[in-house]
Structures are given as C-alpha cells and as structure tokens.
Amino acid sequence: TFRSLAAPDPESTTFQITASDISPYGFSAEVTPSETTTYYTVKFMPTEEFKTLDFDQLTADINAGFDEMFATSQMFDPNTTVAQVLSTYYYKGVFLADASGLTPETACSGFVAALSVETGHVVKIHKFENITTTGKLGNINPSVELIGYWSGDDEAGQIFGQPDATRGKAITVVKYSGFDGARKLSAVMWWGEMTDVDQYPDASLWSQLKASWLEIDQSQPYSFYVVNWEEPQTAFVYAEDNDGNPGTFGRLSTLATAENKGDIQDLIDLVEQINATSKSS
Predict the structure, then answer these.
(1) CATH number among 2.60.40.10, 1.10.10.10, 3.40.50.880, 2.60.120.260, domain 143-280
(2) CATH of 10-133, one of 3.40.50, 2.60.40, 2.40.50, 1.10.155
(3) End-to-end CA distance of the chain, in Å?
(4) Model-level pTM?
(5) What whole-number distance in Å separates Cα of residue 217 and Cα of residue 128?
(6) 156-211 pLDDT, tens per residue?
(7) N or C, which terminus of the chain has less Cβ within 10 Å?
C-alpha cells in the first residue's frame, strides 16, 4: 500500500534570512524555510526594540491574532478550516518581505514564528539578531518648483506628437534644482497632497514609491506630466550622492485648474529652449 508522507514537523523547520536592496529606511529580506509546507509569520524592527521583546507575550499575541482571524472567517463560512486561514493570511515557502519605515544607520533584527498546521498557533520562534544595518542618508537634497500648467487640448500633439495622450488632460511642468554633485536624480508624480513631512515622512513613502521613480537627465532637469484636471498631486524628487546614498525628498503640491492654465505658446517656447540647450551642450 502507498502512503503519503506526513508533512514535516513545523518545529524542525529552520529558516534563513538574506537582506538586500538596503536603503536608509528599510530593506528587502528573503525568508527561506527548510520545509516548504511550514506556515510562518515574520517581522523586522530596530535591534534596540528587538532586545526588549517579551517572547512569551509575543507568542500569546500571535496566537490571539490567529484565533481572531479564524473566528471571523468562521462567521462568514462555518466550514472554514485552520489550513484555509493559514493559506490566506500567512506565508509558506520562500517569501520576500519588505522591512520599511525604519531610520538611517540603524541595526535591525527580526523573528520568524513557525505555526502549527493543526491549531495555527506558534510552535517555535526563530530569532535573527542584527540581520543588517539600514543605509546612510546622503546630503544632496534637491528641490522641485512649478513651471506651469497647460491644457492638453491646446497642445493637441504639436509639442509631444501624441494628441490622444494629452486630449482632455492637463500638462504639469516642474523643474528640479539643488542637485550639484549627484550621481543620479530621480522623480515621480504621485496622487494626493503629500507635502506634509510629519504626516508623510520619507521613511514611510520610500517603499511605496520605490518602483515608480524615473531617472531625470541632469542636463535637462524638467518633468512634463500628463495629469487629470482638478486632481491634487505631489511632485517628488531625490538625488543619490557618489556613494549611492539618497538624500531627503523634495516635494511640491500641484493642482491643474482651468483658472491656472497657461498660454500654450509659453510651453512651446520652453520646450524649444530646452531642446536648443541640449543640442548646444
């Protein structure tokens, strides 16, 4: 007779953590378990905080968190199993975690809690002290200024050659400065009014914006954004120094309206001027 092998015991599963993509505000951490059937949860924090953790309390909190999710799931569907809740809310196999919202040059640690497939509770906590240290903050801090807003209907393809892309839209133009000595200049336009640094610190935005930055040609430090009318947006910019350390974000609140749109000839002149400068340099 053939018997399927029992799943390996979560208690005997070992874990490895490898840090990469380290910034002043966080890092990516690849969690690799020795057994792909073991469910787990993972968390990272400054080492100072890690040293004060009460692991008995932590275990109780993780267990209570599972019980709450299990109870909620059963309210919607009484047939929900522990395995279903584990597969919905927890990790198994290799997982790339994002440690974010940290401060520069901070030693970081973490833990992995392996969970029982029968109860969803913690069977073992694996501690990882000083996994990595977050990066340095650079000292090149560029700023961004508004050049103006224009109507895509007025532009009608005569500047950018894509009338369909600008029809019914606004064009927001910004310029960057204060990036002397930068190895790389990057910018993005993001939705919403996010210029309040206390409410939206760089550290909390770093992982959110990470995949969206576009590199800016430092000899033509402008961005032309096609945007919706009457939609608040924030222009961001940052620069890396020669060691690759990013400085603080420059920010500018933008809102294109029918009242503040400029004469399209001014935009045509600006683009011609930028193009002429780049040809002569």
Answers:
(1) 2.60.40.10
(2) 2.60.40
(3) 80
(4) 0.86
(5) 41
(6) 999 999 999 999 999 999 999 999 999 999 999 999 999 999 999 999 999 999 99
(7) N
